């Protein structure tokens, strides 16, 4: 056993071995899981708070995403309502300090959907951290050592679930550290809707989601971030796709005050496909920082990213997108587009697309635009009698439409409602 | 025929930044009349058309009247709701906004009230069939990925649906093959009843074989240099524009 690990650098919240052991014991997890925590803690102790000169942290101050206390300060579990059970699917409420609340439809039960508290999943330790290791970064190491609301989800091979699996993760007062481990078996098909909601000024969320998609699996992963004003959050998701696996990620991010996301997929088998579509809406003084990675490790793989940002007020957004193609990953196609719509003169968007391509045998394009509303579009609609404000709303709604149409039906009404509500504030304040 | 023209303009000058593109235009178009404004490329025809509609990129001096009401201080959408219509030379694509949703918003705005669903569907069905546009276009995004000809058809379909009292048609004939030109012309004729005035802006005489103009104005270097009857268009077709070049003194275009 290594020496007790204590990580107390300046300006870093206290997280020591005793606290981690206490957490592990409280959750009743096995020795293997505790060992994973301690490994992550050692990495955490050796990892400095990200330096702002690192390009992924150029746009956000990591110290503002950190709670003052990581453990023991979580308030009582948020008394969130369990959302409606989607037809043919499942719903899970994942809160710190309480076991997950789970409701399965008959269909979900029949096809063998397995849902467990992560701490009680005896086999989880073998898989935990394989897609997002502690070495991924500061916040991921923190999560690996201190996650306190864990979920293990498994769709058995060849199972096909009609309805979505909704996972609702409310932000508690204080620090929330959710960890989701999702496995979609060979040739299985499932839609997973991960909803981060709630929270206030005092809420800090550090979440990690790992998705393993087996050979030929079809996965739709919706990530819906609708935190309350004031929330500071860091979300990391990674999917690892086996051969011929097909992943569609839909990201909608509009809540919180300081938000950073690191989203991506590793295409780890020939024939794997990953598509990510998403939009960010920023208003007031929201700070939104989204990063995507498509990492092609195998040949004959395909990826596409269509990421949109619409800002108003004093909102700020940064988008960084990386396409990485290994030397062995020939016959690969990878595309990436980021479009930013500035709806006020006081908002700001940065966009940095990056390519790291180590083979010639690829088709790859990337593009980025940052622009205000197109006045020619506005004039065209006005020339048909449509008043300017309505014309603007139509154009912005149109900008988001293609992505909206991809949002799973179970959550589409709530997403549309927010979009409409935001649009009603976009009223012509920026001529 | 009413004594007040559906459209007039007086001493209209149009500037792009400090450059004067249109240098004094007067026109009167009465209900039931079709006028053609013909001129070579670069004469400022399209600038005039866009400026009359209120394009924010142009500064217009002079006065414009719709049914005798001065409108040059009004926003483009107000002008449109008062019955003015511009068929764009290059219609703008608006991705994500379906043709049907757009038409519905436009027609409701024009009428000042929501259009009942059933009536709207009927209007659309008729207009789409008249202009020979597949109904599937209703669900497509406005002008997004449309061919040049499809865009022009959709412009005239909008004219049919919105029923303007004064229509400015900017190079509606360009980019149309002969069959499409016939269909579009028929749409224009259908939409221009006795209470509608039309100003056809065009480089070529071709479309005038299908739409007989009551008056033809030759527009060069920002001015109307000659006005006449339909025969003037034929003369232009035969002789081109050069012979009018010296006549750069403005001629009243009424």
Question: Summarize this, please?
Answer:
The complex is a heterodimer of chains A (431) and B (254). Chain A has helices at residues 17-27, 31-46, 106-110, 124-127, 138-146, 375-382, 388-404, 412-423; strands at residues 6-7, 15-16, 90-93, 101-104, 114-117, 149-155, 165-170, 174-176, 178-184, 189-198, 203-213, 218-227, 232-241, 246-253, 258-267, 273-282, 287-296, 302-311, 316-325, 332-342, 348-357, 362-372.
Overview of the molecule:
The complex is a heterodimer of chains A (431) and B (254). Chain A has one domain (6-373). Chain A is 19% helix and 39% strand. Chain A has eight helices and 22 strands. Chain A has helices spanning 17-27, 31-46, 106-110, 124-127, 138-146, 375-382, 388-404, 412-423, and strands at residues 6-7, 15-16, 90-93, 101-104, 114-117, 149-155, 165-170, 174-176, 178-184, 189-198, 203-213, 218-227, 232-241, 246-253, 258-267, 273-282, 287-296, 302-311, 316-325, 332-342, 348-357, 362-372. Chain A has a ten-stranded mixed sheet. In chain A, strands 5, 6, 8, 9, 11, 13, 15, 17, 19 and 21 form a ten-stranded mixed sheet that branches. Chain A is globular. Residues 1-11 of chain A have low confidence and may be disordered. Chain B has a domain at 7-92 and 166-244: Rossmann fold (3-Layer(aba) Sandwich), CATH 3.40.50.300. In chain B, 31% of the residues lie in helices and 28% in strands. Chain B has seven helices and twelve strands. In chain B, strands 6-9-10-3-11-12 form a six-stranded mixed sheet, with helices on both faces. A four-stranded antiparallel sheet of chain B has the order 2-1-4-5, with helices on one face. Chain B has a two-stranded antiparallel ribbon with strand order 7-8. In chain B, helix 4 (117-130) packs across helix 5 and helix 5 runs parallel beside helix 6 (178-191). Chain B is globular, with a radius of gyration of 18 Å. Classes of the chains: A alpha/beta (431), B alpha/beta (254). The A-B interface holds A 374-377, 379-388, 390-391, 394-395, 397-402 and B 53-57, 75-77, 80-81, 85-86, 88, 91-97, 101-102, 105-106, 109-110, 141-142, 158, 162.
